[in-house]
Give the backbone structure.
Amino acid sequence: MRTIGTEEHFVTDEVVAAWNRLDARTREDSRAGLPPGELGERLREVGDSRIAAMDEAGLDVQVISLTSPGLHNLAARDATRLQVEINDRIAELVAAQPDRLQGFATLATPAPAAAAQELERAVTRLGLNGALLFGRTGERNLDHPDNWPIFEAAAALRAPLYIHPQIPQPRVRAALYAGFDDAVDAAFATHGIGWHYETGVQFLRLALAGVFDRFPDLQVVLGHWGEVVLFYLDRADGLAAQAELPRTFSEYVLTNAHITAGGVYSQRYLRWAVDVVGVRRILFATDYPYRPGPEGGVQQFLQESGLDRADQERIAAGNWDALVAGIRR
């Protein structure tokens, strides 16, 4: 069974240097910085050690992407320059090991017009498979009209956009996630729950703003079993009705979203995702290097799902292959 992970991260020294040049307020806003120790080294390395980790996890292919917070909090000029350098680097890494690596483009969301142009170059000239975004840019949410050129380009190319978590704004963290010790506050606002609410809200905002109605071919990817959204669609659909959207949130998910495991190896969540969106909209992801592979490997996790072999293969690789096959190069 061929297996593909769609949320697999790396970083370059140039990006780390750009993060380090940010002023203290911006760095605090975005939590931009290289993790210490082995985790930081694993982010930097795209070579033998990564391939060995993939083999251990039973993962044949990583779709690599720049780690959070990407270029979202840089000055527009710096982000515009770096997106080209990073995407060229991703293309080089993929070309060196095309049977083991694919790539998501990095986009300079502080300069949306340049980001849209770069997405087209990355897909049509570099062979990358869409892009990975991090929700808000500063205080600008993903649905802001400034970002619509990116959505227009992605829809025209039929290139998926993976919406990855980013930490909530400082004032949101202070209001909702603070009051404990620093480590607990940080975990509460990130992997504990804050990341996932933040990202799910960004998806709902896209629908409320009419992005999917304006660009019906746009496909987005949500990790971590849908970033909470799948678990409250019945409730949220009332909001869609109040907003007088032409479709419910449930319908937008079924036509404009794909869902990944994002390193959360839960059979319960997998069953729920299959029930809500169906097998053909589910992808696999290990969230390397932040999460290890599933115990026993990817194939064992899928075999334990109780799904038939054809559906296991769809989640393992087939659905991603079909999505990529639809990209207009």
